[in-house]
Model the fold of this input.
Amino acid sequence: MKIVIFGPERRLGALAGDCVIDLNRGFARYLQERGDRNQNEHAAERLPPDLKSFIEGGLLALENAQQVIDHFDGIGCDDGGELSHVVHSCSRVKLHAPWPERRIACVGGNYAAHLLGMWANRLGKTDMTIEEVAREAKKAGQWGFWKVLAEIAGPEDRIPFPKRVTYFDYEGEVAIVIGKRGKNIPADQVRHYVWGVTLFHDWSIRDGGGTDRAVSYNLQKNFDGAASMGPCIVVGELEPQNVDVETRVNGVVRQSYNTREMIWSFGEVLEFLSQDFTFVPGDVIAGGTSAGTAADQSRRSEGKRPLDLFLKIGDVVEVSSPQIGALSNQIVISESE
Done:
């Protein structure tokens, strides 16, 4: 099942071939055909039109959604008839970020191949192997940050180039969406808490954040347009630790990896973060990025970092996975306040 958010009302939908099925309206129609005279009310209760409530609905909501998909799949998109409010052509609707408007935790330094390049730049360590980097990272322990944004960009949305920034970077990632409330969660129980899997883009400022501190505001990771997500959440079909990812800048492949390469698995991250901290349905954990970012590829020379691989206004960046889809965004000039 591939869940999307679409249209001006940001309604809950499911991808079915070249169509988007409005799950709430589809369920109301399904109930009506079976003699339910209060179909709209019952549909709102059992298959709500917003993503957060849908996730909170658990297994029953998913079972209702599957009934709708099975019922309307294959009838054709936008036939202009009485089902035109239920089934839409993908080409005629706007997809938004499938974000449940919950918290987003991002793992840092979670791919040894990426760390190898970052450490070569920051620490001058140029003679380490990927295996040695992974061992050193494990010894140092997990780290990361939270994205605290009011809005998340979706497919084809524009990303404003932050003002007063020179080095703007891309980081294609895979993220899990939590479907069950819990804390102090053992790593081997992660499968019971993962509701779905999606693509995530951690846009990053690389100009430096001042003096390093153990706790900071993480301004390099929190700014307007600092994250995009989508195009869908894949539910019940994917193993989060076996997802292929590519990142392309203007059509050129910059990143290509699989989530098997993560230093800390999603289960280990969830166990670490849930210590005395309650996760709730809709929370998101982004698993980090691998080699190929501008920051890990660009070597300093005479104290300067070349700009050629960093993002510029007009660049188009696409994060894709054959199992999930493509999340494409263009960098544009930031509007004046």
